[in-house]
Amino acid sequence: MDLRAGVARFDASTGLARLSRFPFALLTWVGSDGFPMSAAVTLDSIDPAAGSASFAAPAGLELPTDSEVSLTGSHIRPQPGVGYDERRHVTVWGRATAAGEGRLAFRGDNAWGWDEADIPFPEYLERTVGQSQRYLESVSRETGRSIRPRLSRGWLFLRATRLPFLSATLIPVAIGLAIAAANGFFDPLTAILTVIGAAAVHLGLNVANDIFDTRLGADDTNVNPTKYSGGSRVIQYGLVSLRGMERMSLAFYAVAMVIGLVLLALRPSAALLAIGISGIILSVGYTAPPLKLVYRGLGEITTAIGFGPLMLLGAYVVQSGGSIEPAAVVASLPVAILVALILYVNEVPDRPGDARAGKRTLVVRLPQRTVITIYDAAAAAAFAIIVAGVVLRLLPLPALLALLAIPLALRVHQGLETYYDQPYGLMAVMATNIRLHLVVGAVLLGAYLAVLLVQALAPGRSLFLQ
Amino acid sequence: MTWLAEPITDLLEAALVAELTAIRPGGRPVTYPLIPLWDGARILMTSSILFSRKLEHLKADPRVSLSLSDPVALGGRPARATIQGIAQVIDGDPHTDWERVLPLWEAKEPVIRQFLDSRVAFPLFFERAVIEVTPQRAYLWPDGDTTSAPVVSSAPRTHAAEVA
């Protein structure tokens, strides 16, 4: 099967074999008046191996015997009140000759078609992106003005920055601030600056990731992007230019660096300086040469460090003035593991395209069984650390409520077992995995907010194991 | 007003899918399944720029035929029809031009409103051209049997002249 522009091209035998599954075919030809013409026919004799078929000729119509005709099968399943599904069509081109007694004999030449059971609709759309760009270029030439696809500014910003993923930053930063507050350190101004600065680094990273994945070919070779994987696609779709994305990324990093310098001026400490520099290096080096950490199978560890300890401890040391509390380190670990698992699972549907582009992520390197075993072990470790943290009196007792999220991890495990090779089937699995990080993070945050509440309402009482 | 017979406009209004046949460079007929919409005078279809090869063919040769043949897509109606006509591609602004046919589209495929509400997820799918077909000649098989000669009707001469 030759896949170009989403549709499959194949030989006449394959086309006729497919056509034999349709209840009737549409015979199409170009008449002597230059108009195309078509009429339904029933293929009562079809021999795919021989590339031939025969049928009763439509009555009262003049058919050519010296030019190409085609037979098309088309199917949908109506869904009342919705639309339809089970879309498939196939066309076989060839020549028709009179076979006597009002019948026509058809000999096939070649065929094309699409079946959403073979090529899911989202992949079909993705494979035709190049055609859409060529078309818009030709329309621009015809009209003498630039015609490009558009989205409203708000939607474009959301899509280009992958804004919803900002939860990966907001959770550790909020936990870091809450732990600092529970230890008596809280300054609203620097807290707000910390949130904005951390968010700017994250958005700069997301945009830079698209820039370098485009330059290195990983996003272009991916024909199965989903809501959670495969990048924002704004460059591939022509919604934002590469240069526009570069400007956007630089702007986010500039904001982050200015805020970082302000925070260093307001709360100078060696710890904050080290965390800030490490964060920028890991953020840029995640996809950018020469480090290209994610291309070397180091994406998960980079993400774990960046969106776990660095974010959480960074927020903490801004408030504490440089000191680091062991509880903050422990609280950052399950968050780090679970955010790394978001990337890990989101890489599963991307792995064919990543492999083609030389992006050797962990899931590209490892077999399915090992990938799932590592997921299980890492998720178990995240929950074990929370239990250990409570037992060691480093985390408050309500943190144990995070264990209620274990069924989410089990659902991800089951989803990976079932849908490992189905990019669109994995979408719900990826969503559950993101929810796992959100729920555990929210529970840890809530546990420290409960500590603050008890401190305010019942001084002397403790939510830590005695 | 239309010169198309009522059994044909009934098929057009019911059809969830019709097969549009265009002519490729070199003269080969090529067929695309599309949702036909009927505004009382012209047949309207829309095509995403993702599937714009057909639009290129129509711009090169606007002569088309539209087949209404699948009883399943026609809500169980046994009749079949083929309409020949002249197609015009309207794509001056693919972002908004097609939205005028949205009410007709939504009537046949209600789920499209949900997709449109999440346009951010399918940005290129909703960059679309309108294909406007002015009927010239129609063939009707009232019982769907094409081994019987069709009932043929043509656009009144004045209408055809306007189109030409």
Q: Could you tell me the radius of gyration of chain B in angstroms?
A: 16 Å
**What is the assembly state of the chains in this entry?**
heterodimer
Element string of chain A (H = helix, E = strand): EEHEEEEEEEHHHHHHHHHHHHHH
Largest sheet of chain B: 8 strands, antiparallel
Query: Uncertain segments of chain B of ≥5 residues (pLDDT<50)?
Result: none
Average pLDDT of chain A: 94
Number of helical elements of chain A? 15
Taken together, the total number of domains of chain B comes to 1
User: Distance N terminus to C terminus of chain B?
Assistant: 19 Å
Largest sheet of chain A: 9 strands, antiparallel
N-to-C order of helices and strands of chain B: HEEEEHEEHHEEH
Net shape of chain B: globular
Model regions low in confidence, pLDDT < 50 over at least 5 residues of chain A: none
Helix content of chain A: 40-55%
Q: How much strand of chain B?
A: 25-35%
Query: Whole-number average pLDDT of chain B?
Result: 93
Q: How many domains, in number, for the residues of chain A?
A: 3
- Name of the CATH first level of chain B: Mainly Beta
Rg of chain A, Å, rounded: 29 Å
Distance from N terminus to C terminus of chain A (CA atoms, Å) equals: 68 Å
Overview of the structural elements:
The complex is a heterodimer of chains A (about 475) and B (about 160). Chain A has three domains: about 10-120, Electron Transport, Fmn-binding Protein, Chain A (Pnp Oxidase, Chain A, Roll), CATH 2.30.110.10; about 120-150; about 155-455. Chain A has 15 helices and nine strands. Chain A has helices at about 10-20, 120-125, 130-145, 155-160, 165-180, 190-215, 220, 240-265, 270-285, 300-320, 325-355, 360-365, 370-390, 405-420, 425-455; strands spanning about 1-5, 5-10, 25-30, 35-40, 45, 50-55, 70-80, 85-100, 105-115. In chain A, strands 1, 2, 3, 4, 5, 6, 7, 8 and 9 form a nine-stranded antiparallel β-sheet that branches. The longest helix of chain A has about 30 residues, at about 425-455. Chain A is elongated, with a radius of gyration of 29 Å. With about 160 residues, chain B is an alpha+beta fold. Chain B has one domain (about 5-165): Roll (Pnp Oxidase, Chain A). In chain B, strands 1, 2, 3, 4, 5, 6, 7 and 8 form an eight-stranded antiparallel β-sheet that branches. In chain B, a hairpin with a 5-residue loop joins strand 1 (about 20-25) and strand 2 (about 30-35). The longest helix of chain B has 9 residues, at about 5-15. The interface between A and B is large, with 61 and 60 residues.
